[in-house]
Amino acid sequence: MKLIINQFSKFFLTVFLLVSNVIYSQNNYFEEWYSADTDHLPQNSVKSIAPDKYGFIWMTTENGLVRFDGKNFKTFNSSNIYTLSNRFLYLFGSIEKDSLQTFTEYYTNKIIINKRTAKKVKEGYLFNNYENTRFFLNNNIIQKPNFLTSIIKNKNGDYYKIEASKIIYYNKILKRKSEKNISYNSKSDYFLLNDELIILNSNGTYTFYNSLITNKLNIPKNSKFIYNFLTQQYFICSETEIFLLKKATNKLYLSSLHKLSSNRKYDIKCIYYNLLTNKLFIGTNNKGLVVITNNKFTVLTNTKSIDNNYYATFPISPNTLITAKGEIFNTKQLIKDLKLNQTGSQYGIAIDKNKNIWIPDGNKLTRYFKKTNYSTSDFITFDFQVNAIFCDSKNKIWIGFKTNLKRISPIKIIDANSKKINAVPLKNIVEPVNFFAEKSNATILMATSEKIIEYEVYKNKVKKILAGKNDIRSIFICKNDKIWVCTYSNGFSLYENGNFYKMPVDTNLFLASAHGILEDETGHFWISTNKGLIEVSKKSLLAYHKMKTPVYYQHYDAKNGFITNEFNGGCQPSNTKLKNGYFVFPSLNGLVAFHPNKITKITPKNEFYINEVEADNKTIFFNDSVTISRAYQRLKFKIDFPYFGSKDNVCFEAKLLINGNEKWILLNNERSISFTNLPPGKHTLLVRKLNDFSSTYQTKTITICIPFLYYEMLWFKILLATLFSGLLVLGIKLRYNYLKKRNYILEKIIQERTKDLKNTVKRLKNTKSNLRQEIIQQRKLIGTISHDIKSPLKFLSITAKHLHEKSLLSENESIKNNAKIMHESSLQLYTFVENLVDYSKIFLEHNTLDEKDLEEISLIINEKIGFFKNIAEAKGLQLTYSNLSQSTIKLNKKVIGIIIHNLLDNAIKNTFEGYVKVETRIVKNILYLSVEDTGNGISNEIKNYYLNLLKNYETDKLAIQNYGLGLHMVLELLRLLKGDLKIDATENKGTKVTVIIDND
Q1: What 3 state SS string does 49-69 have?
Q2: Residues with Cβ within 8 Å of residue 777, at least 6 apart in sequence
Q3: Are 613 and 636 in contact (CB under 8 A)?
């Protein structure tokens, strides 16, 4: 942000920042101290340290056993676990089995650490020489090691026994597995690394038990050796550096964990290193506990300058960037100062395709030439102060201006390929643009304080969208081309289809002022603010946009390596992404550089626990439910949560279900929730925590039982209800007698009406029975017709056919014609009767219409054409068929056959000479079947009759005696099929009948 101060105060401020930077630049770590002086520890001598199974850190001191969860310290001593002494020695036992143990001075009391708490046990302590020796080696630099006859156990219970001339390896059931002839050396150290025994000599030589190969380490002089046998971590501490001993293929090497620029000012007693959080927990002799976090963020500054307040930067190579002042940095340090813009503003910089650098300064825009290593330049001066510059993919420089005396300049464009600077105004955009961005479709986005402007370059088309409350500072287009805008006071939003979809801010409201966004390879956004850096998953933001799911924000602040939490914005570019993967953000004091993949992300995904409630200063432990006396006025439920990251990343919410419409309450940074005067009953307390970038919740459910007082108990309420009921009984009884009389009268009325209803039902049953008998008779009649008429007709047709075939041998033409007519007439009559029977069956059992099979429509039609072929030839007709699409379709073959038969029969009967043409086509599973003839043509009267009958089919309107049965059968079948019929007819010219059937 811009500093508005006078020159005098600015001088002292920059001097102060420079001094702070020098002090900080000596450190690549962050220290947090906890001691008795800060009321964190009961005593400043931390003697032993180790984690438990759940992630809590345990320490022994001279005044109690301490548990540390990253925020709070809890002390166990004589006041709560009733030990005889508060002077604790070392921790031992098993982390994996949740059975850490310790004891007080002189082994007086043994303490078991289990399920995140400590308690005294009666059993005595079984002395372990190896653990005891290790502890006193860490705490007493004078003592010499003595591991002879020691037993060194691994995590499985197997152990090594150190003897004078050999080392024997036993399994946990005391069976000897192996032994090696290794003579004991009093100057050697014996310890386990990954459950393997290693012998390390004071001169740096070492031997593995399993290989007996001797190698050597280069150990710094005057180093102290500290072994944490619970975690099997071996530390070598020189005066300025702490190393962790690591193993790789039968070789050891030193990994540096912490390095000082000068000698250490405290004595180390015990150490534990957490690999996941990259934190080093060091117990000291008299200064308490120090937690050291190694930084992965680098702050870049110009040590020769008194002003390290940076704004716009731009990549100049895959590994370097340049500031608007002309300073070139790599990811570690300043490598060159071109001194291009010493006194001007730093709010803009652009590099064109020719690698020339463009830097604005007030009304002036200067171009520095790459071909002369930026030693020469040219410039252009405007009437307005330059507000933003941007180089697009076509090597065009876009320039936005500030307002000047209530006047606004149009946007101007410079061709960077031109030797001479020539600014061309874009007259249809006259706005004070402060940021440019380019979409992949040759559209330039421009941000003003009030709107976003979309300009389509090739179409010269402008679209303006009001931004509302979004005072836009920058625009970011992510990998999937979604557009995000950062604002000065309204957080950041997704800009899509002309709308702004505001994203939720973090619980601390740091994101209210968002400067700029960069996206890493994992799809995470990194957002700079006035209160540090925020990391968030793009996937969770898009999920929030669609379903309003929660969003987890990871916060990074000065504890992670910044000199200041205040980053700068309001410039272009507002950040830089180098091709080597590093991100660079400008801040009020230096450039913050880091690689996203190398950042240690300590997310609050660990399990949390609620097993303790403080009731009026009395502690009650419970599992999933707790009963609290009514005598207690205030309840405080404590949350145990091991987390060693930033407190700003922890988001606990809680709600107590009483009425059913409660809302979640944010607990801020508290690890407890309090209630006062809870009402009696059984209540459910829900506490949830946002885990990590998955944006999922971890929820705990606690049942709270508050007992009722006697007058609140159910039995008392029942008694009162019984007494009250007794007062009502008499009145109810009188009312009952009155209603009983009225009911008697009503029952009589109901009986009479019920009798009438029964009679009506009986009549309906008789009617139903009669209808069923009629249907049976009709079916019998159809069967009779089928048997007694169809069979003789079929025989007659066969006989006529036989006579016709015999008549062909006769020379008498009259006999031939009569035989042919007899054969055709009998066959036609038989087919008519067959169609009539099929039609009747379909009409009586219309549910068979739904029985469809995949049929070849061409086969059905050709079969019918074959039947009518001789009749058509006899009448001099040309009978043709054309199929305009595929012929396979799901249909009822019997129904379609009846329809085609009747249409062909009508067409041939009414046509003399000419043609009868059948045509089918199928469109979107709809069958169009048409029969066209050149016959007499249907009159308008008949045509209107059939079309009106199709729309309003009523049996009493049928005129079969006038118009025949054929088309009536077709219409009835179409009505059942929910089909349609079209008739195109001209008298004496012909008729075309089209049947439309939807087969879905």
Answers
A1: EEECCCCCEEEEECCEEEEEC
A2: none
A3: yes
- What tokens does 834 get? 């067959």
Peptide bond into 318 cis (omega under 30): no
Q: Which helix (H) or strand (E) holds 777?
A: helix 714-784
Q: Which two tokens stand for residue 91?
A: 């921790």
Assess whether 144 and 57 both reside in one domain.
Answer: yes
Angle value at C-alpha 435, between 433 and 439, nearest 5 degrees:
115
Structural domain that includes position 302: 1-27+296-314+469-599
In a domain, 437, yes or no: no
The answer to whether 188 touches 175, Cβ cutoff 8 Å, is no
Distance of CA 175 to the CA centre of its chain: 53
- Give CA–CA dist 81/101, Å, rounded: 14
Q: Tell me how far the alpha carbon of residue 677 is from its chain's centroid.
A: 40
The CATH number assigned to the domain holding 589 equals: 2.130.10.10
DSSP-derived 3-state class of residue 312: coil
Instruction: Identify the CA nearest to 620 among candidates 684, 683, 704.
Output: 704
Q: Are 281 and 274 in contact (CB under 8 A)?
A: yes
Q: Where are the beta strands (DSSP E) in 402-512?
A: 411-415, 423-426, 435-438, 443-447, 451-456, 461-466, 472-477, 483-487, 492-496, 499-502
The reply to whether 698 and 712 lie within a common domain is no
Q: Domain with 968 in it: what CATH number?
A: 3.30.565.10
Domain boundary residue among 836, 865, 895?
Answer: 836
Q: Are residues 495 and 583 in the same domain?
A: yes
Q: How many CB atoms lie within 10 A of CB 554?
A: 23
What is the reported pLDDT for 24? 38
For residue 200, how far is the Cα from the chain centroid?
A: 51
8 A C-beta contact, residue 650 and residue 616? no
Which helix (H) or strand (E) covers residue 948, if one does?
helix 940-951
**751-777 burial by CB neighbour count: b if 16+ within 10 A, else e?**
eeeeeeeeeeeeeeeeeeeeeeeeeee
8 is a domain residue: yes
Query: Tokens representing 36?
Result: 């008795």
Distance CA 302, CA 721 (A): 85
Q: Measure the CA–CA gap between 816 and 824, rounded to whole angstroms.
A: 12
The distance from CA 887 to its chain's CA centroid, rounded to whole angstroms, is 50
Tokens of 941: 């009267």
User: Does any domain span residue 396?
Assistant: no
Mean pLDDT per 10-residue segment, the chain (1000 residues): 37 36 53 94 96 97 96 95 94 94 92 95 80 87 84 93 95 91 92 94 91 90 93 95 91 93 92 95 96 92 91 96 96 94 91 96 95 95 95 96 88 95 94 94 92 94 94 94 95 96 94 96 97 96 96 94 93 96 96 95 94 91 91 92 93 89 87 90 94 94 90 82 88 86 87 86 79 64 59 66 66 69 68 64 57 79 82 82 77 82 84 87 85 86 82 56 66 80 86 85
Residues 624 and 658 placed together within one structural domain of the fold: yes
Using a 10 angstrom Cβ sphere, with 0-12 exposed, 13-18 middle and 19 or more buried, the burial of residue 813 is exposed
Q: Is residue 210 part of a domain?
A: no
Exposed/middle/buried for 938, CB within 10 Å: 0-12, 13-18, 19+? buried
Q: Are 77 and 151 part of one and the same domain? A: yes
CATH of the domain at 631: 2.60.40.10
How many angstroms from the chain centroid is the CA of residue 87?
51
Same domain, 137 and 257: yes
Amino acid at 772: R
DSSP secondary structure letter of residue 628: -
With beta carbons less than 8 A apart as the criterion, state whether 990 and 938 touch: no
- Backbone φ, ψ for residue 871 (5° rounding): -65, -40
Q: Please, what is the angle between helix 813-844 and helix 857-874, to 10°? A: 150
Between CA 863 and CA 850 the distance in angstroms is 23
- Confirm if 452 and 465 have CB atoms less than 8 A apart: yes
User: Which residue, of 706, 735, 757, is where some domain finishes?
Assistant: 706
